[in-house]
Amino acid sequence: MINFEFLEKNLETLRIQYLSAQPFPHLLIDNFCDEEKLLKAYSNVPELNNKSRDYAFANNKFEKSNYREICPEFMELYNDLSSERFNRILAFITAKKTFVDPKNFGGGLHQGKKNSFLDMHLDFNYHPLNKNWYRELNLLLYLNKDWKPEYKGQLKIKDLRTNDEAELDVPFNRLIIQQCAPYTLHGYDMTNFPEGRYRTSIATYAYQVHERLIETPRTTDWFPKENASFWKKQFAKNYNFLVKTKNKFFGSATAKNQ
């Protein structure tokens, strides 16, 4: 399903584009999948009802971790993304020994319904189950058929070190590879999709094995807008502590849903 031939023929160009992108390394790959197969997969996407656990920092956002169950085309995509062939491509593009999580912990099909948004944030850095796997990349495949800029929902990225930012369009069959680091903020503003249409994507994550931890393990760090309420800002400030306390006593709901 993945257009491997295109990727392998253009490795040098893709590597330069990724490493030189601003405000931090990222890459846009259009026609990432076989168009016919991805259209068939898209036609099988149901309306999701499992709300994401982003609390006050997202609105009307839903997810399905086991998206491969939806149709054979999604199973093929899942297998391609976790294949050794794709891992070799990723490692070359990023110039790092990266690999896709074969169980896709925390990833899956994401669906933003009416007035959906996702506040700017940093993702968890070390894998909750494999403690020395450092999260190097977000791989986001967009399924927004006939998307237009006025629908909004562009992926916003911002470098915490410099405050430089960019806004990336999210049309159908575009993969965005985005570096994960302690400064790589990302999210999206409130959407304006037509009735019955949703901001839809497949999220997959890639890692690197660390012999020693170079950062303090964290969950998601949220950065709500300046005009956010006092209580939302306080929630963001204490989010890591609250989630770690909850997981200590009740376990990770994300892990249970894999």
Automatic annotation (TrEMBL):
InterPro entries per record: Pro_4_hyd_alph_FE2OG_OXY
Domain of life: Bacteria
Domain Prolyl 4-hydroxylase alpha subunit Fe(2+) 2OG dioxygenase: 111-206
Protein name as catalogued: Prolyl 4-hydroxylase alpha subunit Fe(2+) 2OG dioxygenase domain-containing protein
Protein's organism: Flavobacterium pallidum
